[in-house]
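#structure-requests
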Amino acid sequence: MLKYLRVGISIVIFTLITFYFLDFAALLPEGFHGLAQIQLVPAILGGSLLILLFLAILTLLFGRIYCSSICPMGIYQDIVSWFSKRRLFSKKKKRYNYSKAKNIIRWSVLGATIIAFLTGFPILLGLIDPYSAWGRIISN
């Protein structure tokens, strides 16, 4: 039951964020622009400590709920993974193998994000941010 709830919330948020980026005719009400404020890097750049605290508590309580239900790039990865597990596109069923955590990459991205934020260099944050990457993908 909880999986279906998470998938339903993910579909709604993914659809609204995608339409937010594709809304060149300004058809969506102004309330939908709030979806950008619950994203991690826009909250960091905006200095919204309340949203950052909410996302941190949500992540501590429910694990990767941010990546699988709020972040559009994470939702897109889940969609691609779901389709690749099915035999829709190939005859051979794909399996994922375990790999060790890539801690050097993980800590490097975190360090680059912190340095870019502290030095006031938001262009680097925009390149790292999955929300803005999804915006570039969907609008192009």
